[in-house]
Design brief:
This protein has 237 residues and is an alpha/beta fold. The chain is built from 9 helices and 9 strands. It has one domain: 3-Layer(aba) Sandwich (Rossmann fold), CATH 3.40.50.150. The strands form 2 sheets. A 7-stranded mixed β-sheet has the order 5-4-3-6-7-9-8, sandwiched between helices.
């Protein structure tokens, strides 16, 4: 599934950013086709810091980092970030516009061994993030990712943000046109669904948490993104 998404992002808004707004557009961080406000982005950063309890002593591994819009401000809170994405043009933009001395960017797929992505042994890491991108994976693929995380650390927090929430999808498909387009896409087997991706059920995350004996917290979003949710998985020794 993620291989198909790799092709999608390789052809999505292929631009050479000329402004900060272009970085938002490049990764689809928009509302009504316009870049979200700086306050919205700051709120997203604060949410990650709060949920993962990030501090200046933490090392963070961020999967699917895009062009670093979230990575860079997070780097101002933590000791070190290892961040990767499978889209080379996005990593190029991150290196050019969102670099920091404590960020190591790499091009790689979350399906790969993380050591191969960064081409060196990683330190012990206790904080992991997938921001805005869980919809590009199946439950089976997410389980494989978790298995790789457990090779790095047996005690960690893993936060998945802005996951499309199946039980609230009609908050997004809230017009006859949107609903019709969604139904046509489902019938045709279109996994992209206009870029939204896979709608996850809470029970799927609960099943995964039970399989790995993780603590799980599910956060419903009550703003204009009420069709999304956050998932925090905590592994304990």
């Amino acid at each position: 599934m993620s291989d198909q998404w790799k092709k999608f992002w390789e052809n999505y808004n292929v631009i050479e950013p000329a402004s900060e707004d272009d970085l938002y557009i490049q990764v689809g961080k928009t509302a009504n086709r316009a870049p979200v406000s700086k306050e919205v982005l700051a709120g997203s950063v604060y949410d990650v810091v709060e949920k993962l309890e990030l501090s200046s002593s933490d090392i963070l591994l961020e999967m699917c980092c895009g062009n670093g819009l979230i990575t860079y401000p997070l780097s101002q809170t933590v000791k070190q970030i290892y961040a990767f994405d499978f889209t080379e043009t996005l990593i190029d933009a991150a290196l050019k516009y969102k670099a920091n001395k404590n960020i190591e960017y790499a091009t790689g797929n979350a399906k790969e061994d993380f050591t191969k992505i960064f081409r060196h042994e990683l330190p012990v890491i206790h904080k992991f993030l997938i921001n805005d991108s869980t919809a590009y994976f199946s439950p089976e693929e997410l389980e494989k990712i978790i298995e790789r995380l457990l090779k790095i650390s047996k005690d960690f927090k893993f936060y998945l943000t802005n996951v499309p929430n199946d039980e609230n999808k009609w908050n997004f498909y809230n017009t006859p046109e949107r609903k019709t387009n969604y139904e046509k896409a489902v019938q045709s087997g279109d996994i992209f669904l206009g870029g939204i991706g896979r709608w996850w059920q809470k029970s799927e995350f609960i099943t995964i948490a039970e399989k790995f004996n993780f603590k799980i917290e599910i956060f419903d979003m009550n703003n204009e993104y009420s069709y999304r949710m956050g998932i925090l998985l905590s592994a304990q020794n």
